[in-house]
Design a protein that fits this description.
Layout lengths: L19 H11 L6 H4 L4 E5 L2 E4 L4 E4 L2 H4 L8 H13 L11 H13 L9 E4 L4 H16 L3 E5 L8 H5 L4 H4 L8 E4 L19 H18 L8 E6 L2 E2 L5 E2 L2 H14 L3 E4 L23 E4 L11 E4 L19 H16 L2 H20 L5 E7 L2 E6 L16 H13 L2 E2 L1 E3 L5 E4 L7 H21 L24 E2 L16
Parallel strand pairs: 3-15, 5-6, 5-7, 7-10, 10-11, 13-18
Antiparallel strand pairs: 1-2, 2-3, 4-12, 8-9, 11-12, 13-14, 14-17, 16-17
Helix pairs in contact: 4-11, 5-11, 9-10, 12-14, 13-14
Length: 508
């Protein structure tokens, strides 16, 4: 295996001397008000390997964001660098529109071999403009063309991109408010283990999630079958198996299975957005494999390009009814991305990184639960594989009917800043941007996981002190690795999951 050899803990050659402050100042003056990560992560990366970024400030940062989940193998993995270098040295054309090339053919072979078996041997691929948003647009257009219907079913908390159609099925109100409505979208309730859309359960009750999940299924069925429900014939249902930007909310397996059955019985194409969850991120190669469902259309981007821009949809052959040119894009034939993507998919497969991700993710989730002991500001921890979140709350506030405390986005932002100060890169997401998100590369080492958890715990305490309070006294201990009995703390290995994760510490 190549994992330990590429742990990303040594600097290698010296970091180039650059004026980081000047670069950041120029960026602020030249780039748009819509920039995001640059605002909250004011660093200038100059070198990187594995899970480590070297900044122009001379510091090393442990990257638990990994390009928002794009860098499955971390920064500059040897396999990826070799694939890109060989393609460049070969003289192969780098831009080919959608023409066939040896690089594309090899990538397609590797990708098809990884697809959920239920899509069938005749599954079709369509290469899109190189972003997840464009792949979602393609999936929507395909479903609308195949069914002749226009209405889309989407979920609260969902995120599918920033272009018109993808934004229409996205739940984020703030980015939608200034814009005209785009298309007919019916919003359905996504089960949430902490902020249940139906307001059921108590914060200390781990089984509140399944209750909300069952209510969600009943609501969806009744709405779709109600002749006065106002839902015109749907073109598709769009769902994420784990809501990433929505706050790291895994769909319960039994809920996703029931949703698949609802769509099957009614002839509604099911689009599963695996832009962020795909390529072993959740502990299976595709997150739908946890539940065993097969979507009609699978949306892929991020990690499939090995760090380079690439987006593809895979779908059942019987949906392949659109006309030539129905969805095009100038940059569909990125040869470097296909070479890097093939190398990435191959390495993930050969090294069994899906199983490794499940094991290390269980340790990291248990570590987040341990951090929550005596820190009521951590209202809930959840995740699947190496896609993890911790919801930051104000425990002095009034809990809602389900026992969830108010989100505390100010404290969450301070925790992110304190983490960066300690050399840990994380991001925020979820409602009110109050969920700490961790998306480390799949090759992160066990020692790096322990280091990340230690830095995060220290950052939480420092942030709480900056707000003028101190962490609560330790809660009564629960089972090893699980939250204590204090207010607001809950653990979910997946929304509505009844199984506790493996909480044993690993040797470092």
């Amino acid at each position: 295996m190549t994992i330990s050899a590429h742990s990303g803990t040594n600097a290698g050659s010296s970091v180039p001397a650059v004026d980081a402050a000047a670069i950041l100042t120029r960026q602020r003056s030249r780039e748009s008000a819509a920039r995001t990560y640059a605002r909250t992560l004011p660093i200038v990366p100059v070198r990187a390997e594995g899970a480590i970024i070297h900044g122009a400030d001379g510091r090393r940062y442990l990257d638990c964001l990994s390009g928002a989940g794009t860098l499955a193998l971390g920064h500059n993995h040897p396999d990826v660098i070799q694939a890109i270098s060989e393609t460049l040295a070969s003289g192969a054309p780098l831009h080919t529109l959608d023409l066939a090339t040896p690089e594309k053919d090899a990538f397609v072979e590797e990708l098809r071999a990884s697809l959920p078996a239920g899509l069938g041997p005749d599954a079709k691929l369509h290469f899109c403009g190189p972003s997840g948003s464009d792949a979602v647009e393609a999936a929507i257009k395909l479903a609308q063309t195949a069914t002749g219907n226009q209405t889309l079913l989407a979920f609260t908390g969902g995120y599918h991109g920033m272009t018109a159609g993808a934004l229409a099925v996205t739940g984020n109100v703030a980015v939608k408010n200034p814009l005209p409505a785009s298309g007919s979208v019916v919003r359905l309730p996504f089960p949430h283990p902490y902020r249940c859309p139906f307001g059921v359960g108590e914060a200390s009750d781990r089984n509140a999630g399944p209750g909300g999940a069952q209510l969600s299924i009943s609501y969806i069925e009744r709405l779709l079958d109600d002749p006065l429900g106002g839902v015109t014939s749907p073109a598709a249902l769009v769902v994420e198996p784990v809501q990433g930007e929505g706050g790291v909310v895994p769909a319960p397996d039994e809920w996703l299975t029931a949703v698949r059955e609802i769509t099957r019985r009614r002839g509604i194409p099911m689009i599963v957005d695996e832009v962020q969850t795909g390529v072993a991120r959740t502990g299976r190669f595709w997150a739908v494999e946890h539940s065993g469902i097969t979507p009609d259309i699978l949306v892929m981007s991020k990690a499939i390009g090995g760090g380079q821009p690439l987006a593809v949809i895979a779908y059942r052959a019987e949906l392949d009814v659109w006309l030539p040119g129905a969805h095009t894009g100038t940059f569909r034939g990125n040869q470097l991305a296909m070479a890097a993507g093939r190398a990435t998919l191959r390495r993930v497969r050969l090294d069994g990184l899906d199983d490794r991700c499940a094991r290390l993710g269980a340790r990291m989730l248990a570590g987040l639960a341990e951090i929550s002991h005596g820190r009521p500001q951590i209202g809930h921890v959840r995740g699947r594989g190496l896609m993890l979140g911790a919801e930051i709350v104000d425990p002095s506030g009034e809990p809602d009917s389900a026992g969830a405390y108010p989100a505390d986005p100010r404290l969450a932002a301070l925790i992110r800043a304190e983490s960066l100060h300690r050399g840990l890169i994380i991001e925020l997401g979820g409602r009110h941007s109050a969920v700490i998100r961790l998306l480390p590369p799949l090759i992160i080492t066990e020692a790096q996981i322990e280091r990340a958890l230690a830095m995060l715990a220290d950052a939480v305490d420092a942030a709480v002190r900056r707000l003028g309070s101190t962490p609560a006294t330790p809660a009564a201990p629960g089972p090893p690795g699980l939250p204590g009995s204090g207010p607001g703390r809950r653990l979910h290995a997946g929304c509505g999951s009844r199984e506790r994760p493996d909480t044993g510490r690993e040797a470092t």
